[in-house]
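Annotated sample (chain length 247).
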Amino acid sequence: MNQTNLNGDKWMHMNTAKDKIIANNSIVEYDIEIIEEIIHEIINLHQKFSYMYGNLCSLNLKRNKIRDVVSIMDNNSYLINNNFLSIVYNYLEELKMLIVDIDLEERYKHLDFRPRTKDPESVFYKIGHYFAKAGKGTYSINKCLNDLLGFRICIKNFDHKCSIFYTLCDYIKEEDYNIKCIDSSKGDYKATHIYIKGPSNKFFPWELQVWNLDDREVNYESHKMHKQMYKKSAEIHKNGFTIVKRP
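Output written by the structure step:
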């Protein structure tokens, strides 16, 4: 990398976004490199898993909407398409085996690394919520079911507004893999969510949540309240939403 030092601290002739990240790393008060490492770990898992089990989902998850897999019954209850439920169930079963086999939780335990698969009941409520909210099911399936597999890490001094971090995510998306990074902080909940999407709309996205270590306890409580309200909202809207058991 070519560099010119002006006044002892100004870097010139940066060739890539990666160069900028490296040059500015000294002003970042958290371990940005470990986050990049974990993102790439998850990217590798997502890519291998999605190609290996690509036959689990034949739908275009971006083009197909929630309303395409949900029907309104005569009694105003909502029924999820049985074939689609089978796709989700089978996917979740394979994910459960995947997280048993990986060692990321042990390797990154100093970051309180937590993997989890979404439980089927939460999937039902989330589909019901997206079907009932404004738009009446016009949301893409991959927008609704973007966290069938989720991970969480806690990073000391992490800054959810850090422009260098977003530059890193843009670089990864441009050079390596399709990801989306969002500051999802709302109220007491403070978190950045990274969605690992991949090159195909037949791949279910996965989610990585990045928390500041100082927010961990408050986030736990906020997350519990959000889940309760989310479930309550879905119950109110669904009017007898029918939970279809696995065939």
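Annotation: The chain has a mean pLDDT of 82.
Annotation: DSSP finds eight helices and seven strands in the chain.
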